[in-house]
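Good morning C.,

I know you're traveling, so I'll keep this short. The sequence:
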Amino acid sequence: MIQFEHRDWISTISLKGEIMNENNEMGGEIAVVGGGIGGLVAALRLVEEGRHVTLYDRAPAAGGRAATQQKQGFFLNQGPHALYKHLAMHTFLTERGLLPSGKEPAISNGKALWHDKVYNLPGDPIALLTNDYFSVTEKVEVGLLLQKVMSFDPQSAAFTALNTVSVKQWIESETKSERIRAFFTAMIMLSSYSAAAEIQSAGRGLAQFKSAMGGVLYLDHGWQSMVQALRDRIHSLVASGQGGYREVFSARIDKIDVVQATGKRVVLSLHGQTEPHTYDAAIMAVPPAETSRLLADQLSPLQSQTLHSLVPARAACLDVCLSELPQKDMTFALGLDQNVYYSVHSASAELAPSGQAMIHLAVYLGPDDKEVAAHQYKDALYAVLDRLQPSWRDHLVQERYLPGMIAANAIHTVDLENSGGRAALREGVSGCVFISGDFTADDQMLVDAACRSALMACDKVLAGIKSVVL
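The tokens, ready to paste straight into the viewer:
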């Protein structure tokens, strides 16, 4: 396995296939700000095109929210992570032969928590027919509604119109059954990591739910395996003479300026350094607040307003590592009257020593939920564990509580869908600084939005460099 130094690593391979700008300087030198999945996707894509990339991150190592902690043989992601099959990130990795090993979880025997009772979760057509949560009439209604959702064409005018109504408004217009409303609300929450039915776009929420029905993967050894696969490929390309790559971790960037002149136009100032660093272009792959801070008054009013108005999706996460799983058939549960999630990820992926178990639990937080009530969420997750795995404390190896994890930097709200703000963000600044992140892509969410937006930013960078050459 290739190991990278944690600070200021630079390739000794010179840039091949040089592109000359108007001052006869070497073009294609690009800064990528942010070392999470989006930043690494951008860096790999640019190196594939022979560009010289410098990646900056304020953390001491790459990965961002995809970083995995390894402790006592357990692999702990930062909350429950699932890679959606056939969407942007899965496709990007598969096309390059980089998809880490993993397995699709089985939820056919999952449980639904409803008013202090445990029911069989209608997670597939067979479970829908045999579950004890819905009445016979409700089963027929749910089957027809699922068929309607799965037949939606995201490109159709009817589907686009759903972006003007919230998830709550849509489901209330479709059924009067309290249990059906709770089921669809919970499934959209599960697939989008967002408990915001009152403000979340029905169109985007349903599209994500439809994507989830195509399957997800839990990755062996956590999402760090995906981070390492991307970095290993970058190193391999550079070692073979393709492009150049440099990583600077623990980097404190004070500001990024754009100068309207020929030659290198992006000026990046690092804290404590008198000499600025200049680049032909830059891709921002950092959270909205950091993007706003670094670009400041260079943003347009709509871009600035959009960044400040984004509503993040958050979750209170509890990771529990057990020496063995007491109730071995109790591997998945979803709260239908409360925003709770329970899944034994080690039942599908290699995340625990043999015979042991790693459980992810989460409370999906609403936009108005406050982190000051963090202990209350932890108590709620303990209550779920006590119900599903009554003797779990007898087998406890370790636990970790993350009270306010950011699951996504922006909920796809009705207001955001109709503001044009994300399109404005994707336009970037002065034709040479481009903004990516899970908050900028229209058609996908979570890591898939981060991946897709990073690739779109790369396309703009590469087109801009070619235009200088031409």
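Safe travels,
E.
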